[in-house]
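User: Just a sanity check before I run the rest of the batch. Below are the structure tokens for the first item. I only need the designed sequence back.
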């Protein structure tokens, strides 16, 4: 210490040392030392504050520092853990990344007094992150002030976890009424030790939720137990849940008392197994009270509704998306009761076809007539049909560039994706009793105009006895198709491509002599051009050779029906080098624009 700069302090130290050397330190002298210490500490604090005031960061306005704190809280959580397994091995052994303290954005308040003050003043940040700071949210609840809190936890239960987090459950039961968001997402094992198994739905009928806008309670725990208090039929007898501002509700294997739905824009009710707690009157009553509903999802919980009577319907003028999963009878029974705009998108999964409707033509015709009332058939210009382990078809409408640029959709294997200018209007999937390709095409005449279809995508993941004549008959129904896409058909591309071949010179042919006369773009995901020795044998997969493929394209060129664009994601040949030197140059002489993403000598599945 510089004696000349701190003369009074140095004198006090010498005086105290002399007193200690001859006896004890007098009380008055000890008190003088304490006062000197406080003064020096205050001086040091002021010096640090003065120094920090010159730092560029701390010269920013408090509002800006608060925004920095908020961004940091999103990028660097204070606590990490309770995450789902990242690998199949971890899932098998029931392991998960351990919960650990990282401090993260909280460290910002440790830098200096000003940053600490700014951080403590942003009670909304503490309220939004209360579940990511500590094992016990109650310990930091005082920092939230009167701001509505965000209860958000994603929890993975290991098989050996046998004690539920009682402290957290008590916190939810006590403070859920002060929440703006409640989101509990659980997966893993041992349902008895989970949060939702021990969170009684009666909690939501005994409290008022004036701030709640989003409520999501999702249980993905296996094996699924059926003795959960969240799946009892007595729940609907509880008093109504008071939540006037609730806009989003998502329940997975959980149920709540009746709730206020006047502000609801998103309703998702999902169950792992068929669970029919809602009666027809209750479900229709809920929908009647949802005038602002935009998204509706009902999985395995649709009651059997009576035949629609005059005035017996729910008008949902803002509805954009409907997602249904249940038996054919239950899904088709609900649709007539929904009055929606023709722009509403439908995703329907039929898990069971009842015995009296096992004939594909019967249930497909009924479905098509029902869908006809839901959409504007004149807007459908794209069709996708898939026949495989599960059958499905989808109808697509064109969208302007400004709309589909903002949509995220996988475009790798489909010309009907959003980035290619299409919007999926209807998607129907069949888990059991899947319809055949020809049956789907025939039934769609009730929903769309064949002549309006410009893009056609067909997938065929099961081996069938479809010959050239079959494909000619199917494709001829769509005379104005300009884009044709084949997926999962590497073993059956021969007949489907042969159907595109022309046999008459262009001066002698008519429109009826050419299959898909306006076709300009062919897209094939996997094209096998190897020469198989048993080609044409009974029951053998019908491939196509590259000479046959060139002949098909050349015949259309000579008939003035040239293919202008050819895309092949994976081309399989016997000799990759020969294909690059001989086949591809010939192909480009016939087709102006050729895309081949990958050339292989074996099928991709052979690498597994």
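Assistant: Here's the designed sequence for the first item:
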């Amino acid at each position: 210490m510089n004696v000349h700069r701190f003369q009074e302090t140095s004198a006090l130290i010498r005086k105290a040392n002399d007193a200690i050397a001859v006896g004890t330190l007098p009380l008055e002298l000890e008190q003088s030392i304490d006062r000197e210490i406080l003064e020096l500490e205050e001086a040091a604090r002021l010096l640090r504050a003065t120094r920090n005031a010159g730092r560029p960061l701390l010269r920013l306005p408090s509002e800006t520092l608060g925004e920095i704190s908020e961004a940091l809280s999103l990028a660097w959580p204070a606590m990490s853990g309770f995450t789902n397994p990242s690998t199949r091995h971890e899932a098998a052994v029931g392991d998960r990344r351990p919960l650990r303290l990282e401090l993260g954005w909280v460290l910002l308040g440790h830098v200096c007094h000003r940053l600490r003050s700014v951080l403590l003043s942003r009670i909304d940040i503490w309220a939004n992150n209360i579940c990511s700071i500590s094992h016990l949210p109650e310990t930091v609840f005082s920092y939230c002030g009167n701001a509505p809190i965000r209860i958000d936890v994603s929890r993975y239960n290991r098989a050996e976890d046998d004690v539920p987090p009682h402290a957290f459950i008590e916190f939810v039961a006590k403070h859920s009424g002060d929440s703006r968001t409640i989101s509990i997402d659980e997966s893993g094992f041992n349902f008895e030790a989970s949060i939702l198994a021990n969170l009684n739905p009666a909690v939501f009928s005994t409290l008022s939720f004036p701030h709640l806008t989003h409520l999501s309670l999702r249980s993905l725990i296996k094996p699924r137990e059926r003795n959960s208090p969240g799946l009892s039929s007595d729940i609907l007898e509880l008093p109504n849940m008071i939540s006037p501002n609730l806009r989003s509700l998502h329940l997975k294997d959980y149920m709540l008392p009746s709730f206020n739905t006047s502000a609801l824009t998103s309703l998702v009710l999902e169950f792992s197994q068929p669970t029919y707690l809602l009666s027809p009157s209750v479900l229709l009553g809920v929908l009647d009270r949802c005038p602002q509903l935009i998204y509706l999802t009902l999985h395995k919980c649709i009651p059997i509704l009576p035949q629609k009577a005059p005035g017996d319907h729910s008008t949902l003028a803002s509805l954009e998306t409907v997602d249904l999963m249940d038996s054919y009878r239950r899904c088709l029974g609900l649709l007539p009761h929904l009055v929606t705009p023709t722009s509403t998108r439908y995703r329907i999964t039929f898990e069971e076809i009842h015995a009296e409707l096992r004939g594909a033509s019967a249930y497909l015709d009924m479905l098509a007539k029902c869908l006809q009332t839901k959409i504007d058939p004149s807007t459908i210009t794209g069709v996708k049909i898939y026949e495989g382990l599960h059958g499905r078809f989808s109808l697509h409408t064109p969208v302007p560039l400004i709309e589909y640029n903002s949509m995220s959709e996988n475009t790798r294997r489909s010309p009907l994706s959003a980035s290619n200018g299409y919007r999926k209007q209807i998607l129907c999937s069949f888990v059991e009793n899947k319809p055949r390709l020809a049956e789907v095409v025939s039934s769609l005449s009730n929903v769309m105009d064949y002549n309006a279809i410009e893009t056609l995508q067909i997938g065929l993941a099961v081996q069938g006895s479809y010959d050239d004549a079959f494909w000619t008959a199917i494709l001829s129904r769509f005379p104005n198709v300009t884009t044709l896409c084949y997926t999962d058909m590497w073993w059956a591309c021969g007949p489907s491509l042969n159907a595109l071949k022309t046999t008459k010179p262009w001066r002698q042919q008519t429109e009826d002599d050419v299959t898909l006369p306006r076709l300009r773009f062919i897209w094939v995901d996997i094209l096998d051009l190897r020469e198989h020795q048993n080609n044409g044998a009974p029951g053998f997969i019908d491939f196509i050779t590259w000479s046959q493929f060139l002949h098909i394209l050349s015949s259309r060129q000579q008939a003035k029906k040239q293919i202008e664009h050819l895309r092949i994601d994976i081309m399989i040949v016997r000799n990759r080098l020969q294909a690059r030197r001989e086949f591809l140059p010939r192909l480009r002489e016939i087709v102006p624009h050729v895309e081949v993403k990958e050339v292989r000598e074996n099928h991709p599945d052979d690498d597994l």
